[in-house]
Structures are given as structure tokens and as C-alpha cells.
Design goal:
5-stranded parallel beta sheet, 18% helix
Length: 177
């Protein structure tokens, strides 16, 4: 029993130290990792560190995108975008954070992600997904965070919260240092 207690104590201490190191790393990375791209661009690099980042893409031929959520998150809405005929790749990195990915119900999505106390999940209706057409390939990882893939976003559709508008107060609460 003492051995199990020792392992548990060691695990908790190491987890706490890893969390502190991650928070410090995020603080320094915030000034170095910057978002690149506009809603109409076919290639996007989005970074949400200690903040919310919402983007509605209108890309005419989306080829590549990445979204890093590190102690932050938001929404990436691809319903107005069109995939490149050869498909597209989205690289996700969720570290103590996460985001919502909104895609058309018929898009084919392939997941190749790794989750550690987190993950990437596709919550869309399977019977609405097309069997032919371009594929959105999602790779990356989620550590103590996640990515939710949906095709409906009522909060974006009813006009109360638009992408790019001010996010609700619960999403902008300050993160303790």
C-alpha cells in the first residue's frame, strides 16, 4: 500500500510541475506564435494562447490550416469554406485548451490524432456524411484539452454571437498566472 501511495504522490507532484512548466512555456510562446491568414485565405495558421480566437473561413479552396489552443480556445467555422478538390489538412494542437470545429454535415473527415487526457471527437450524424468528395484530414494532438467537431452551431446561427464578435464573459475570464 505504501508503494501505491508513493507512486500516486510522485504522479501528482510531476503533474503539478508539468502544468506549471506548460503555463510558463505558453506565456513565452504567446509573443512568438502568431496567427496568420484571413477568412478568405486557402491556408491558415491560428493561435489561441490565453485567449479566445474565432474565425469563419470563406476559403474558395482550403488546402491547409492549423489551430493551436494552449490555455485558450474558440471556434473555427468552415461551413462557408470549400475544400480543395485534393482535400485539405487541419493540424490541431490542444494543450490545456480546446476549440470547436464547425464543418458542413456532408464533409468527410478523417482523424489521425493522439489524445492524452483529452482528444478529438466528431459529434456529427454519420448518415449525413458524403461517401464521395474531398476529405478534411485532421492530425495533431490534444493534451488535457480537446477539439469537438460539429455541423450545427446554434449560437452562431441565431445571430446572438457572431464569429469575430465579442465572446461571452465566461470565455474571456482572466487566467490566473
Amino acid at each position: 500500500m505504501r508503494v501505491i501511495g508513493g507512486f500516486l504522490r510522485t504522479f501528482l507532484v510531476l503533474s503539478l510541475l508539468a502544468g506549471i512548466a506548460s503555463a510558463i512555456g505558453a506565456f513565452y510562446a504567446k509573443s512568438r506564435l502568431l496567427s496568420k491568414g484571413e477568412p478568405a485565405d486557402d491556408e491558415l495558421d491560428l493561435v489561441a494562447i490565453y485567449e479566445a480566437l474565432n474565425l469563419a473561413s470563406t476559403a474558395p479552396a482550403l488546402r491547409r490550416a492549423s489551430y493551436t489552443a494552449w490555455y485558450g480556445g474558440g471556434t473555427l467555422d468552415l461551413r462557408a469554406a470549400t475544400l480543395d478538390p485534393a482535400g485539405a489538412t487541419l493540424t490541431v494542437r490542444a494543450i490545456f485548451g480546446g476549440f470547436r470545429l464547425v464543418v458542413p454535415a456532408a464533409w468527410r473527415v478523417e482523424l489521425a490524432t493522439v489524445g492524452v487526457f483529452g482528444g478529438v471527437g466528431d459529434g456529427r450524424q454519420r448518415d449525413l456524411i458524403a461517401t464521395e468528395g474531398p476529405v478534411l484530414r485532421i492530425d495533431g494532438f490534444a493534451i488535457f484539452g480537446g477539439v469537438g467537431i460539429v455541423s450545427e452551431a446554434p449560437d452562431l446561427e441565431d445571430g446572438t454571437t457572431e464569429i469575430g464578435s465579442e465572446v461571452p464573459a465566461w470565455e474571456t475570464a482572466p487566467v490566473p498566472a
